[in-house]
Predict the structure of tRNA-2-methylthio-N(6)-dimethylallyladenosine synthase.
Amino acid sequence: MTAKKIYLRSFGCQMNEYDSEKIVDLMVDNGYERTDKVEDADLVVLNTCSIREKSQEKVFSELGRIRDTKREAHKDDMLIAVGGCVASQEGKKILSRAPYVDIVFGPQTLHRLPEMVGKVNDTHKPQVDIRFPEIEKFDHLAEPKARGATAFVSIMEGCSKYCSYCVVPYTRGEEISRPMADVLIEVAKLAAQGVKEVTLLGQNVNAYRGETPDGDIADFAMLLEYVAEIDGIERIRYTTSHPKEFTQRLIDAYGKIDKLVNHVHLPVQSGSDRILAAMKRGYTVLEYKSIIRRLKAIRPDISIATDIIVGFPGETEEDFQATLKLMDDVGFDASFSFVYSRRPGTPAAYLKDDTPQEVKLKRLQILQVKNDAKATEIAQSMLGTVQRVLVIGPSRRGRGMMAARTDNNRIVNFVGDESLTDTMVNVRITEVNPHTLLGERV
Ligand code: SAH
Ligand code: SF4
Ligand code: F3S
């Protein structure tokens, strides 16, 4: 008998992608093989995102396409499953909008997918489970499997910050940290399979409060120290951190742990205190800048990335100017900026929003131009420096060239042997181009 096939598509953030890998691994353990062709699949899984309206709408158009393929390929037995944050938010309502969907599961019930597939096959009735049955999903997942030299490890689930614009606390539940030993074992197993760079994942990794084997509570700084001790791990990243719990202990970790990359993604959302308060972010611009100042005191050339929302309800020109000023003050290396998207059920959805969409789009454009200029300036300043990079594999530039990634997420091409793939090497930056850097091994 040939193995059944699963087609999976991820629409969301890194946590969503992490969940996707776990879903595939789990189904492989249950006798499935992965396929990249919908028409060959016995099970199609869309792992969805509802952070902005556009992300959510993408899911429904993709579902329509899948239904058509199922019909055209005469795959009557194909099951269609919707997981992730849209599933969590909409639940059964997905079935009224897309009645051909067989399974709806949430980010905290993904481990139940094999069982739900069995139930649909037995009963021919759609199955919906979007509960938050606590963190025990991790106890029902497949053994961690490395896919190259980089890997993601979830350290906490959910979010309890309830920023006024955001769906995440409703779609993924409240913050729960995984016990420290579980995280360390997962990292160690990945390291034993050749992983050198680990990215610790969570909506607010610095809210981590993991139980230790002695029954104490470890904070994020302590977790980082332990992860850094694991043999084989050479580089540690994390995402996303939140300014509210960016403690001095975490800042000090940058002085103690060389393996922590010289890069941090710390979303600020706005440079106006009035807007930050309306967003319920829980910090002021001054507090944000104080974190950056203290980080730079320890790592002067640390690269800072951020997220910015433009056009939050009530954002005036003056508020927007304050955001531009903050960008100048901090000198972000990257800012992931989006126009505010009204999310039903969130408190901000009820705020008066009288800024025309064209004005918001114009603000976004101004912000992105400013961001690109700064990113180019930072790349220029890397000329002549020596960077420790993780080699990804042969470069698209052609023969003899290898591609690698710097701490601050830039691709460097350099002459090197394919055997360097998945290793860390030092390269000197010899040329800076708009989208890539050139280097030579030192
Ligand atoms: N937990 C992280 C970010 C999670 S969501 C944090 O708090 O920083 C990723 C990004 O999506 C956010 O940083 C924010 O910039 C953006 N985002 C979230 N909700 C949004 C909305 N309703 N409209 C536009 N952007 C939004
Ligand atoms: Fe959303 Fe705020 Fe939680 Fe981030 S911290 S996931 S923006 S509620
Ligand atoms: Fe999207 Fe859910 Fe992630 S809403 S951004 S997939 S946590």
User: Anything to note?
Assistant: The longest strand covers residues 386-394.
